[in-house]
Amino acid sequence: MPSTPLIIGHRGASRDAPENTLASFRLAFAQGADGIEADFRLTRDGSIVCLHDSGTSRTTGGELQVAESTLAELQRLDAGSWKGDPWQGEAIPTLAQVLQLLPAGKRLFIELKCGAEIIEPLAADLSRSGVAAAQIRFLAFDHLLVAALRERLPAYRACWLCDYRWRGGWHPSAGEVLTRLAEIGADGLASRDRAILDAALVGELRARGLEIHVWTVDSARGAARLVDLGVDSIMTNRPGWLRRALELPRERA
After folding, report:
1. How many other C-beta atoms lie within 10 A of the C-beta of residue 98?
2. Distance between CA atoms of 84 and 106, rounded to whole angstroms?
3. For the segment 114-123, what is each residue's pLDDT rounded down to a tens digit?
4. How far apart are CA 180 and CA 124, in angstroms?
5. Half-sphere exposure of 197 (CA within 13 A, CB side)
6. Which of 52, 143, 171, 213 is catalytic?
7. Active site residue 52
8. Is the pTM of this model over 0.85?
9. Is-contact 159 139, C-beta < 8 A?
10. Catalytic site includes residue 143
11. What integer is the mean pLDDT of 220-224?
12. 211, β-bridge pairs
């Protein structure tokens, strides 16, 4: 029986707490997560902040664009109240703050939501943090950014994020995924949980020495399938619940 994959809190414990906040990350670790996944963007004044969207309206009510705003402007916003009064006053955190929060031995999956302009500030933040490279994974949908990260920061592992569309077949196909990973020198695949991700594809990834991380899985049945496939990690909005579900006998999960 394959061992249980790492349980990674997607934007923290984002089912329970406001996504991409320090409170959400702390809660994920309190729930037993092996790591967290978070989204990062570059501000106008060169700081790296944790926010999924290009703008702030969905999670703060403010109408700022990250790339056009300073760190000070962004951190004045309330990124917690939308999730409920207990979270009022949560700020948009910086990458430096997230790195400082990361417990020893836990993982941080850094999803980069902008272009190569973030690489040098990223390298500086990581160098100052003292966090071991083994605790970090870079994720990006932009395959050219993955290639650039591998060249600039070779001590760190970078994985290509991939979603799929069905048009009489999966696009990209399994063969296209494998070709792209080889072209950019990626260390692994961060795949959406789709049927294309089967034993054959996982077996080929393993044969090539590549990692396989899967997002976003909030059902015990879906997670159990991935455990059987032997993936490295499962990203979930409910890390505590999913860990408990996977520890139950399969017929009760």
Report:
1. 25
2. 28
3. 999 999 999 9
4. 28
5. 25
6. 52
7. yes
8. yes
9. yes
10. no
11. 96
12. 188
